[in-house]
Write a structure and sequence with these properties.
It is a single chain. Strand 1 and strand 2 form a beta hairpin. The chain is 32% helix and 22% strand. The protein contains seven helices and twelve strands. The two termini are 36 Å apart. The longest helix is centred in the first third of the chain and has 25 residues. Strands 1, 2, 3, 4, 5 and 6 form a six-stranded antiparallel beta sheet that branches. Strands 7-8-9-10-12-11 form a six-stranded antiparallel beta sheet. It is of the alpha+beta class.
Length: 296
């Protein structure tokens, strides 16, 4: 039986992770350019599928199309509602090469789109059409990452079902390269001075969020995270569960290292306990109306 929670040290697949991050941005920015704005940018993420990550249906004039990363067949599948279909192979190839074929395949399906060519939320960004630096693709690492996304999505869906207030879908943000689910109190947030339009829209209302990401330069190992925005005073001093969870001062959020999850007696229970305890701590401190927001 396939290990549902396989090891995935960032150091062992950093090159592949960065390349895949850029490929998902190319596809995600297409959805962002064509789909109408939905509150908190819910029109831009990807979604976990049994085979990979999908845009879901994207509108284009009178037709729709979909782009799905298939990490079992190692291809990007493009299809439209008129029956058109193309596959783009996933293998060690540069971002520039992937981008060129992707745009060519979209045009062959009758789709002309311009996207922001500069990567988002990535250090030292290189334009997609000029990026020959990121060109790695290790199939085994990608499949292990996908299995972790499947498990995380399953547990986050269960956690989401406990909340009857406004909640985001469980979705994959290609900018920060993480899977997340977010709960809302229903109250607007104070305007943050000097923030960009993306951040202003994302945090226009009070939120408590949890998610998983494979690690980055700030924290180079996979972990589950949780935070509140605005963050209540003394949240960092509040104990949460399980015992391995802790407040990371540098990131300003709670963390539960993935390796502590995968070696737990029940990884699912450890993630649920982390999500629930961090939510309760933040919601109580922020004065959320939990009685009306939560399922009895």
């Amino acid at each position: 039986m396939t290990d549902p929670w396989p090891p995935l040290p960032l150091s062992e697949w950093q090159g592949t992770c960065d390349t895949l991050h850029m490929w998902t941005q190319v596809v995600g920015k297409t959805r962002m350019a064509l789909a109408p704005l939905v509150n908190h940018w819910w029109n831009v993420p990807l979604y976990v599928t049994p085979r990979g990550l999908t845009t879901s249906q994207v509108p284009y004039g009178n037709i729709t199309f979909e782009a799905e990363f298939d990490f079992s067949g190692h291809r990007l599948r493009l299809c439209n509602c008129d029956g058109g279909e193309h596959d783009i192979a996933l293998y060690p190839r540069s971002v520039a090469d992937f981008y060129a074929e992707y745009m060519s395949r979209l045009r062959s399906l009758g789709i002309e789109v311009k996207i922001n060519m500069l990567p988002s939320e990535f250090p030292d960004p290189i334009r997609f059409d000029e990026d020959h630096k990121h060109a790695s693709y290790d199939k085994d690492s990608v499949q292990r990452f996908h299995r972790i996304l499947i498990g995380s999505d399953r547990v986050f869906q269960q956690f989401r079902s406990r909340f009857i207030g406004k909640s985001s879908p469980v979705h994959f943000f290609w900018g920060s390269f993480d899977l997340a689910v977010t709960r809302f109190s229903g109250k607007p947030s104070p305007q943050r001075p000097g923030v960009d339009s993306i951040t202003r829209e994302a945090y226009s209302h009070e939120v408590i969020s949890c998610g998983f990401w494979p690690g980055d330069a700030r924290f180079p190992q996979p972990a589950f995270y949780a935070y509140a925005a605005p963050s209540p005073a003394v949240l960092d001093k509040t104990p949460v569960r399980p015992g391995a969870a802790y407040w990371n001062t540098a990131l300003g959020e709670f963390l539960l290292k993935y390796d502590d999850v995968r070696t737990a007696t029940s990884p699912d229970d450890a993630i649920l306990e982390f999500c629930q305890s961090t939510y309760e701590s933040a919601a109580n401190l922020a004065g959320w109306d939990r009685t009306s927001l939560e399922r009895a």
